[in-house]
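comment on this one:
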Amino acid sequence: MNAQRIEGAVALVTGANRGIGRALTEALLTRGVRKVYATARNPEALRALRDERLVALRLDVTDMDQIRAAGDAASDVERDVAFAILDGIEAGQEDIFPDPFAVEFGRQFESSPKASERQFAAMAAAMLSGSAA
């Protein structure tokens, strides 16, 4: 498996001020990214995420000028997963597996959905038992 390392990577997260975007931003920082561009309609909402690796950007995804500005500012982002997702959409794929883990999971799921279900149940159980320790 050719997994991409998070540590040392440069990432961009939209909607980083709350919800999944906030959780992804915090997780990326915890995992040791070199830099994370965190976007929000109001970048002031990102002040609580104090970290020298965080670059707050204004981004309303419905504003083309802001999209261009964010793209220009974050030109060093490393976006393999995003490209794979967009390639899949353009190819009309119903199921898109954008990284090596997802590709392997897709193969396993196609050959045996029940085996995939058991594997993920075992992984979830292991994670839960590990967090309780």
About this structure: The chain has two domains: 10-78, 81-132.
